[in-house]
Amino acid sequence: MKIVKHSYTLDDRWIKQLAKELNIDFKNNRMLFEESYAHGNIFFSQATNDISVVLFDLRYYEPVIVSRLATKENLYIIHFDMSEDFNIFRSHGKDYHIGYQNNLGLTYIDGKIPNIFIPKNKKSMFGIRLLVRKKLLNHLIIDKKIDQPYLHHNIDGESRILLKSLKQEIVENPAVEAYLKNTALQLFANFLEKFSKLNNRENKSVEEKHVSLAKNVRQFLLMNLHNPYPGNIALSKEFGISSAKLILIFKEVYKITPFDFFTNEKVLLTHKLLKSGDYKSVASLADELSISNLSHFSKKYESVFGNKIGSDLKKK
């Protein structure tokens, strides 16, 4: 049985150390496993100054125990498990079967508390872990004397869709960092909304209302990706709030402005459509997506994917 020990950091020091100990290369934010005990990938990316994301897409061929040591930094760990079968989460001497099939795909734990993770042998293990500075979540914890320093729960429907889409994106496009960061921030917002509901408060708190508003703005922007950015004034009129407050709330939840979120999403959509083979030219796609300044947009696209926009155009 192989035993792997590690401890998380918000930056990439932990995964570089792990790669060194396992004698596996860590390149382009990715560990590629082609070992006797496991095949697949671990991706890492720091989405913001306060949130990092780890993506596991592995299949184990030998029994493995992953022992996570207590973090030195003040972090919470939020794990979303969409594996093919249940995995075992062990803490304080107690085992839990977690995973999508067990309706306990969401695990939340204080990073200071060590735990053991035992993946199911010869089954696909797919999951995301968010590493979050405690200061981002502490204001949501009403009861500071919570008996259980961790919780297990079901994954909400919207997050399941996000995870399934990301899994498909890995198959089609191994350079997933842009999608990974974006998915991480959306999962975090979903968690904020879910966590506040788990506290069983009768009245919505200010934080809940902010999350709800931000999610509505995000959904509105996603529905209008084929149009130009509506503008902050138009958004403020749409949602009945000042543009300054709308931007502040959206950034509080998603750690990005509405405009930058819209631009990033349009870049991701452009990438998908370029690969679809349904367009004869970049210009025709730009017209459909109402991209007025193609030169500027192309620079943004290249900064995300590392390729010139024209090189990704696939023709049938």
Number of contiguous helices: 9
CATH homologous superfamily annotation of the largest domain: Jelly Rolls
CATH architecture of the largest domain, by name, is Sandwich
CATH C-level label of the largest domain: Mainly Beta
Structural class: alpha+beta
**Low-confidence parts, pLDDT < 50 over ≥5 residues?**
141-147
Label the overall shape. Answer: globular
Main β-sheet, spatial strand arrangement: 2-3-4-5-12-7-10-13
How many strands, which pairing sense, and closed or not: the largest β-sheet? 8 strands, antiparallel
Write down the domain tally. 2
Number of strands: 13
Average pLDDT score: 85
Q: Secondary-structure element sequence? A: EHEEEEEEEEEEEEHHHHHHHH
The CATH topology name of the largest domain reads Jelly Rolls
Q: Approximately how much helix is present in the residues? A: 25-40%
What separation lies between the terminal Cα atoms? 48 Å
What is the alpha-carbon Rg in Å? 21 Å
Question: What does this molecule look like?
Answer:
The structure is a single chain. This protein has helices at residues 13-22, 157-172, 177-198, 206-222, 232-239, 243-254, 258-276, 282-288, 294-305, and strands at 2-6, 26-27, 30-34, 38-46, 51-60, 64-68, 75-81, 87-91, 94-98, 106-110, 115-118, 124-133, 150-153. It is an alpha+beta fold. The chain folds into 2 domains: 2-156, Sandwich (Jelly Rolls), CATH 2.60.120; 206-312, Orthogonal Bundle (Arc Repressor Mutant, subunit A). Strands 2-3-4-5-12-7-10-13 form an 8-stranded antiparallel beta sheet. α2 (157-172) packs antiparallel against α3 (177-198), α3 runs antiparallel to α4 and α5 packs across α6 (243-254). It is globular. The N and C termini lie far apart (48 Å). The model is unreliable at 141-147 (pLDDT under 50).
